[in-house]
Amino acid sequence: MPLHMTKIAYRSGSVENLRKWVEAGPEAHMTTRYLPKRHEEMIGGSLYWILEHALVARSEIIGFEQNSDGRWTIRLAPKLILVHPKAKRAHQGWRYLAEKDAPPDLAEGEVAGDALPVRMVRDLSKLGFV
After folding, report:
1. Largest Cα–Cα distance in the chain?
2. How far apart are CA 45 and CA 92, in angstroms?
3. What is the CATH number of the domain that holds 116?
4. Alpha-carbon dihedral sign for residues 99, 125, 95, 29
5. pTM here?
6. pLDDT digit string (tens) for 37-76?
7. How do beta strands 46-50 and 81-87 pair?
8. How sure is the predictor about 118, in pLDDT bands with cuts at 50, 70 and 90?
9. β-pair partners for 8
């Protein structure tokens, strides 16, 4: 079972803007200072995007490459897959996410509004209902 990671989509503002960025080319690239220690387990896993304090989508991790400046590029498949929103506190950088804790993908034809809205998931989570 591959290992996943979470990351805030801080420049996106919306799922549609995130989709435009991820699906713009043959691959999406995200840069980080440090190579995750468990990077080999993450290839084939996903990067789960946090937007408005909830996991809302994921992108498959293709691999990792070191740049000439010493930083690392996380290579992502050019497809954004929507998931059932799951409350997640914001954090800096990235964090590991085990398979058992990852939210399921939305079914074909299902839209995020069919599941609970992101803000409602966050509020219900604070109250201990989700």
Report:
1. 47
2. 20
3. 3.10.590
4. positive
5. 0.84
6. 999 999 999 999 999 889 999 999 999 999 999 999 999 9
7. unpaired
8. low
9. 50
